[in-house]
Amino acid sequence: MVIENAILFAHDGLVKTRDTLYFHYQKYLWDLSHPTNNPKDCEHQRRVEHRIQLQDLNTPPSQQLPGKYILGIAPFAANHYHFIADLAACLATAPKWPVLLPENMPKHYVEFLHLCHFPTRFLYPQIYEVENLLIPPYQEWNAKKIASIQEWFAQNIPSLPSSHPSQKVYISRKLSQKRHLRNEEEFWPDLEKYGFEKFYLEHMSIAHQVQLMRNTSHLIAPHGGGLINLIFSSSDTKILEIRPILSSGQFCYGQLFSHGWAHYQYLVPSQKAHFLMPVAELRIILRQWFGNF
Predict the structure, then answer these.
(1) Can you give the pLDDT at residue 80?
(2) Which of 116, 226, 278, 281 is most buried, judged by most C-beta within 10 A?
(3) Are 165 and 233 in contact (CB under 8 A)?
(4) Tens of pLDDT, residues 30-86
(5) Which domains does the chain have, with CATH numbers?
(6) CA 157 to CA 253: how far, in whole Å?
(7) Which string of b and e fits 167-196 if b means at least 16 CB within 10 Å?
């Protein structure tokens, strides 16, 4: 969707037209002229109403942006999952207009956009009037969306996947501030025994992450953005997600992997206050995958 003369609040990507709000790209739409049409008593309503309370939406823009742009600013724009699921899914079929980005966008995302021949422009956190603004649509996971992303990445990172993926991967979030398994030292010997290698995605370019997934036969990881990379793996890849709670990410990976990855499993620690790998259950799954060592 291309909006003419869009008012953009660049600190979080809220877009306002005369009578409509677009938030988190197009995930949370809000009709200002017909309030009764808006969702009620749900997360959608809570997010938009909270956002409206934070700032006067009638504040005039401080700068004009003539030309055509793609919105790359959202509350979770720098999150790896949302970069691929929301922005990359749009760019796969978008015109090569400059992508508007927040000042703190990680370098490896910017490098990837340039690799794909998209110019970028960083915006200060102020209010702009954009002459023509393409806002990425919100789509649930479906086969068409997955195929579009896979094809686009294959065009820009053209190395073919291995005919026999064989790499056993454990994604560590030990460098992250949240959702890192606190007993990694306890269960790592079990993974190492079966030939797993440990990876910190923070140290890898997007192209390197894609290449890794193309050659992965088994993957274990705590819930986090890195699991979205499995969209580039073989449909035969065996996947184990460790969730802090049952509904982590609103079941986003369960929805994604239901479209073609038959060997997806997850574990949830029994103690909610402590994010620990359930070691006994992990060992059962490893024996199911590999047999007794």
Answers:
(1) 93
(2) 226
(3) yes
(4) 999 998 889 998 999 999 999 999 999 999 999 999 999 999 999 999 899 999 999
(5) 2-139 (no CATH), 162-290 (3.40.50.360)
(6) 23
(7) bbbbbbbeeeeeeebeebeebbeebeeeeb
Amino acid at 209: Q
C-alpha distances in angstroms, 50 versus 44, 125, 292? Answer: 10, 19, 53
Assess contact for 178 and 204: CB atoms under 8 A: no
| Residue 159: per-residue pLDDT | 73
Residue 290 CA, chain-centre distance (Å), reads 30
Tell me the HSE value of 256 on the side-chain side, using a 13 A CA sphere.
Answer: 22
Residue 226, both tokens: 């890195």
Q: Where are the alpha helices (DSSP H) in the chain?
A: 43-54, 80-82, 89-91, 107-115, 143-156, 184-193, 206-214, 252-257, 279-290
